[in-house]
Amino acid sequence: MEASNEDMSELEGGMINIIKVFHKYSGKKCKLKKTELKELINNEMSHFIMKIHENDVLDQLFTDLDQNGDLEIDFKEFIGLIAMVTSACHDLFNPK
């Protein structure tokens, strides 16, 4: 990418951060296994999503996100989680 961070808008910087966080947990394979998804949620999203302690909760979330049934979460499937959480939290940050 040619643009420097100083040239980016807040939204573009946020998008870059989402990509970086995904790759921090997925590594070179660019897919999250169930344990990696749990670690990402518990470490990076704990203010918006309750920490996952129960395997049943993780199993259901993983099944809902894993649209192609390959038992891994790719970036497009991960973005579905980000969109759902962002939409659900919108009212908390909506200026009145």
UniProtKB/TrEMBL annotation:
GO MF, any single term: transition metal ion binding
Domain EF-hand: 53-88
Pfam families on file: S_100
Cellular component terms (Gene Ontology): cytoplasm; extracellular space; nucleus
InterPro entries named in the record: EF-hand-dom_pair (IPR011992), EF_hand_dom (IPR002048), S-100_dom (IPR034325), S100/CaBP7/8-like_CS (IPR001751), S100_Ca-bd_sub (IPR013787)
PROSITE patterns noted in UniProt: EF_HAND_2, S100_CABP
Keyword set, alphabetical order: Calcium, Metal-binding, Repeat
A GO biological process held by the record: positive regulation of canonical NF-kappaB signal transduction
Keyword Metal-binding: yes
Keyword Calcium included in the entry's annotation: yes
Record protein name field: EF-hand domain-containing protein
Organism: Pogonophryne albipinna
